[in-house]
Amino acid sequence: MNKNENVLSRVKPISKIGSELVLGCMKILHFVNGKTIKACLLATEFEFIVLEKTSHDQDLQIVVRFFWDELNLLVTQSDSRIYAKTAKTEIEFEIQNAFQVCLSMHTYCTRLGGKCKLDSDRIKPQVPTSLWFLYKFKYSLFKRGISPPQYLVNEIESSLRQNLPTLDLNKIRCSNKYLPDLLNAFVDANCFKEIVFPASDKDTNWKLIIPFIQSMKYYETITFAESINTQLSQVVTALQSNNDTKLQNISFIKSKINSENMPLFSKLITCRRFSKLTLIDAIETNYIERFIKEFSELDSSKLLDTIVIKDTPTLPVDLLMKNLPSIKTFEFHNCQVQVDTIFPYLSNSNLKGIVVDGGVVSGKELDRILISPTIVNFTFSHIRWENYSLISMWCRILNHTPQSDFISMDLSYAQTGPQSWNSFFQVYCGSHAKTIKSINWSGNQIAPVFLQFCASSQNLNTLQLDGCYTAQTSNCFVSDFADMMKSNKYITELIIRGIDESSRADSSISRFLEALATNQTLLSLDLSGQPLGDNGLSALGNLLLQNKKIRKIKFDGSLDTTYDVLQHFFQKLSSRDAPCDIEWPFQEIAKLRNLNGISASSVNKLRQYWKTALSGGKSNDLITDIEEEPDISLVDVFNGSSSAFDEFSNSPLWKIDLPPIPEPDNSHILQNAASEYSVAELLKLMMQKSD
User: Fold this and answer.
1) Which domain does 487 fall in, by range?
2) What is the DSSP letter of 627?
3) This prediction's pTM
4) Which helix (H) or strand (E) holds 278?
5) CATH number of the domain encompassing residue 601
6) DSSP letter string over 383-414?
7) Before 579, cis peptide (omega within 30)?
8) Are 474 and 508 in contact (CB under 8 A)?
9) For the segment 40-76, what is each residue's pLDDT rounded down to a tens digit?
10) Distance CA 149, CA 168 (A)
11) Which domain of life is it from (predicted)?
């Protein structure tokens, strides 16, 4: 076997798998027995490979190769030299930007589960991210000689990118071929709070899942989708044996609970103490009333704090609340509740909150209903309010005196007639409230008197007005509300998100933000989905500079701005001298890249300003971060400096035309800056071009 064949034989298994992506290729000087040899460092998702040839007529050959998680030690005390050691090999080489490259190498090692000591007074290890668990999953499959289907990677990656709380195995339908590696990679993951299992006999391999349930630590909710069956008895034992889990909640989706499987359901909810039970279209219709009776007789039902029921239109909510007096919070979502039937049970002294999303209220004199002073959460969203009942409920909640704490009120997306709205704004919305700490008025009509009420309520900390700022209501916000907010001392969190085209602000939002700039009380502002435009983004920047108490800002979605304005925004905030959790505008960056072809280097420059703004302009000499999105920290970055690399990097022998590395795609993180060629094809091209 000649040397060319030797190189290719090394990568044959990889080319067959086709899933190891090239992260970068850099030229290095390899120190061997006191000599320096020109070499090439090839970094892939899972491997470190050094190729070299000692003379012009020699073929490229692999001289050092190891998997990233085999690294034991990385040393760099200057920005030009790195020493790396594994249990079987060691290598020292000279390279530009050694601190950044060394940090990248350490990150590639630790995100695959490796334990590598980092010896450098200039580098701080990167903080782990949720994406590392996905790398572990892919690496586990790689070592077994298989690659995951792209849809599976995309589904998990999308959940991680969006910080979704749920790992939904029922949705992704992971086959048994990949399931062991997936569960092993995410068993200790702290990025997901909920795990969903398909509970049917046909699609679920409980032999693989039971060990996961026995050892999972950070999941707080376990959910069973589809009809429950006898195999779930294994789950009972597994849950009882796990003493380290943070599990608090249990949910059932389309479980077809009936008289036959009710005993198994009872065992599941009594095998450990749960505080929250969620039932989503989980009970057979003809069994609902009997279920309520049998469930209320279980000791475990008396230990629950919260019951959530969704998509159950025939639910007799009055019977449920009557039979379960120990529950602290009831939530009914899309159950088409006759809300009047629950009012008699609001006097229950154990009740702390009532949540109804969807239903009808027809009563007129709701201001006379008895409400326990223990209740501090009133949520009546997407309700059809008949007979001026919205006014009655508003008055009753405002007159409610809680036993402790203050009240959260959600009357969003109220459906009522124009006469009711007129009466509400003319007569009932004038006085301020002393007991309300949070109001969600999203999707409702707006009038100056309501905004005045909010601005004058002394204990109101959070105000949510999603979809309320439109072209029709802009005058209320710019004139009345903004003027009052200038001197408001109570509202610390303001949420005014744009939901769709018909519920977004117009160009006046820049004037609203300009007026808001003198406010010194706001701590959090959410403008997601609002078309700020260049003027609005500039006004937001001035607001953040003038009010340095703001600690959190969200504004992604429909910024409708340019790269230069976005760069100026972050650059301006980098001198704010106060830290702030500023949302990175993923959607806007993706749009700018797709429509305007913004380069990866421009995005990286923007990220540096953004990171500086996060810390309030404070920085230190430690290198603590590599570009995760995109993962391009090992691309060729040589320039015409006066270092020993000058002759080396300009040598025709080493001027290799690599395959094109595509621009990062934010929707596919693991493919960022990755070659569309396989490793084998890349090495073939390198050998051809180096002759």
Assistant:
1) 429-623
2) -
3) 0.81
4) strand 276-280
5) 3.80.10.10
6) EEE-TTHHHHHHHHHHT---SSS-EEEE-TT-
7) no
8) yes
9) 887 888 888 888 765 666 666 778 889 999 999 999 9
10) 16
11) Eukaryota
